[in-house]
Design goal:
Blueprint (H helix, E strand, L loop, with lengths): L2 H19 L12 H4 L3 E2 H30 L18 H14 L5 E5 L12 H13 L3 E5 L4 E9 L3 H9 L13 E9 L3 E2 L1 H27 L9 E3 L8 E3 L1 H34 L1
Parallel strand pairs: 7-8
Antiparallel strand pairs: 1-6, 2-5, 3-4, 4-5
Helix pairs in contact: 1-7, 1-8, 3-7, 3-8, 4-7, 7-8
Protein name: Tll0287-like domain-containing protein
Keywords: Signal
InterPro entries: Tll0287-like_dom
Amino acid sequence: MNRYGIKKLVFLLAINSILSLQSCGGVPEEKSSTTQSNKVFAVAEILTLIAEENDITRTLYTKAIVGAGKKQGLKFDEDWQDDEVEAGPLPALFLRGISSDIRKSPVPLGLYLGSDFPINASNKFIGKQAELFEKIKTNKESQHFFEEDQKLYTSMFADLAVAAPCVNCHNEHKNTTKTDWKLGDVMGATTWQYPSDSLSYKEAIDVIKAYRNGTKAIYTAYLDEIAAFKIDSTKPSIGNKWPSKGFFLPTAEVFIDSVRKLTSYKSFEKLLADSDKRKNNYLVSN
């Protein structure tokens, strides 16, 4: 096996071990090596990978939890964490929760959601990001650039209206500045930032782990909120069933396991493809 095959094998084994142990609270002992320390991934590659995972995760939450849950009587509100509000986080707030948890981690990964018609004025794109967002709205293609002011490598990805709950909420919100959103529209863009132009295998794993930990943290916070509901009739049964089956919600473990099944294969395929591309480029140049 050549050194490119070894790198792929090391990475896949490492990420499988780390992510499978997250639910148990443990991680494999780290071992320093030349392979781990090498910067082998361009930052745009990893930010694209994690953005794709985020799309899958948010779509699952939006459709299978919020959309199906509302049909069963579950409520979702922007003030979901207020003591007097018995509801769960809307999809945009679910993303904000992930972002907040990432900021608490040692991983220097930035994430936020912006738009040219945001409900919250502080999320309105300005400057270069506003300019690039116009391109995203036109062709839905991601934009990668270096943010001079912040000295951060930045990637922006189209945030599409993938489910009716998103469209209805934004059209009907009291602070909305646009009332004619429809399915498929580019409602905004998720923006990811990282301080380095390239990452080692370990750094790539850390980025994926930080994102997935954030997902688990916000979903667990939602279940904790439900446990504190004062009206028993508003509490769904928590177990292995989803809202599509009735007044149920999956446990954090069931939800995260579903996320991993949907995202892991796609992530591995992406990393393998990137590794093969580098291998071919190396063979051509040598």
